[in-house]
Amino acid sequence: MNELLRRTLTGAGIVIFILGGFLLHPVSFFIAGLTIMAGSQYEYYIMIKSTGIKPQVIAGLAAGALLFIAATLAASGTIPMKFLLLILPLIIIIMVTEIYRKEEKPFNSLAHTLFPLLYIVLPFSLLPFSAYGHTGINTLIDNNLEAFSPGIAAGFFILLWTNDTGAYLTGVSFGRHRLLERISPKKSWEGFFGGLVLSLVIAWFMSGWFGIVERWGWMVISAIISVSGTWGDLIESMLKRSLGVKDSGNIMPGHGGFLDRFDSALTAFPLVFLFIILFG
């Protein structure tokens, strides 16, 4: 099977799982978000462990899952927002635990245990807040909620994948001028603009279906995704290059791991969420 076909088939499976999860029901929305978050966080820890550093994997994953669950409950109004502050004692527990682990370089372990909470968990924990309290496209299964719409998340990922596809195809076909060769030798300016143009076109035609903001808003969101998504990709490339690894994992043939597939979302989604909060 050639690389393009394998990449296409895997990409189709990813789209079905993520969009299907987001659009089906609030419970499947939660499962899809938690899956990609936990998978990305776990791969980060595995990459770090390959260098000899021993982060607190179980504690870090537990803290991430609890934060995502608390964010979902807070966004839905089930618990007060102040309960999100419970992450603070969890962080302190992780720091205190490091005292007793007797690692040679404990602050390396501690830093790499806590960093994914900022880098990975926090961006994905905004997903519930993008759905609850909003009206727009409804879930495929009736959820009996007055204000729940997966429109922001679905629209975001459609535009993100459109940008990635446009960048990949344009870069492979016409890429000549390197974007940042020191970090990512294959990325080109031609690919960047190809992804931007294709995502703008899709945003123009699909903005009415997404809802939430006006057409001009989705055009701006598309531009935010193209720019900040590229930064996210470069940040993960910088991480992998510093660790000496090619892919974050191999669970997705042709795409690598969770972190390889969703690295762009880690920087793009918080900025898109901020834009919608300010102007939506």
Radius of gyration: 19 Å
Q: Which stretches of 5+ consecutive residues score pLDDT under 50?
A: none
Taken as a percent bin, the fraction of beta residues is: under 5%
The helix/strand order is HHHHHHHEEHHH
Largest sheet descriptor: 2 strands, antiparallel
Describe the structure.
The protein has helices at residues 3-24, 26-49, 57-75, 87-99, 106-124, 127-131, 151-174, 189-210, 215-243, 258-279; strands at 178-180, 184-188. It has 280 residues and is an all-alpha fold. The protein has one domain. α2 packs across α10 and α7 (151-174) packs across α10. It is globular and about 55 Å long. The N and C termini lie far apart (44 Å).
List the helices and strands and how they pair.
Blueprint lengths: L2 H22 L1 H24 L7 H19 L11 H13 L6 H19 L2 H5 L19 H24 L3 E3 L3 E5 H22 L4 H29 L14 H22 L1
Antiparallel strand pairs: 1-2
Question: Which terms would index this structure?
Answer:
280 residues, mainly alpha, two-stranded antiparallel sheet, 2 strands
Compact summary:
The chain is mainly α and 280 residues long. It is built from 10 helices and 2 strands; from the N terminus they run H-H-H-H-H-H-H-E-E-H-H-H. The radius of gyration is 19 Å and the shape is globular.
